[in-house]
């Protein structure tokens, strides 16, 4: 039990060592935008986004705890999960007659996750090339 607590602490310190804008992006924008999908479980888009959010958490959380840091490896599940989600949401936005709240959710998630995917492609590429350094709390 003590080891898992230390892993959480190390991961948190690694997160806090990231540049402030990255912390705001992740904790203040990216996570909340995806989490709001749980308020839309009565829509198909809300369910898809919620499942994707759960899958990202289910894959990234163990990676984070195992590595005790904010490794670039965390970007790989985003690519595997969000690229298909983005494609499905684009199709849904342009081929279905979505009501305003669901359409707004889809458009916001497409924008925010699309921006995140730019960072994820960059980080995944660098991780694959062997660049495994991670931020550490000073």
Q: Quick recap of the structure?
A:
The protein is mostly helical and 138 residues long.
What does this structure look like?
This protein is mainly alpha-helical and 138 residues long. The chain is built from five helices and no strands. The model has no long low-confidence stretch (mean pLDDT 93).
Summary keywords:
globular, mainly alpha, 138 residues, 5 helices, 0% strand
Question: Helices and strands in order, then pairings?
Answer:
Elements lengths: L1 H15 L3 H16 L8 H24 L7 H21 L4 H29 L10
Mean pLDDT: 93
The quaternary state of the protein chains shown equals single chain
Order of helices and strands: HHHHH
Separation of the first and last Cα atoms = 25 Å
Count up the helices.
5
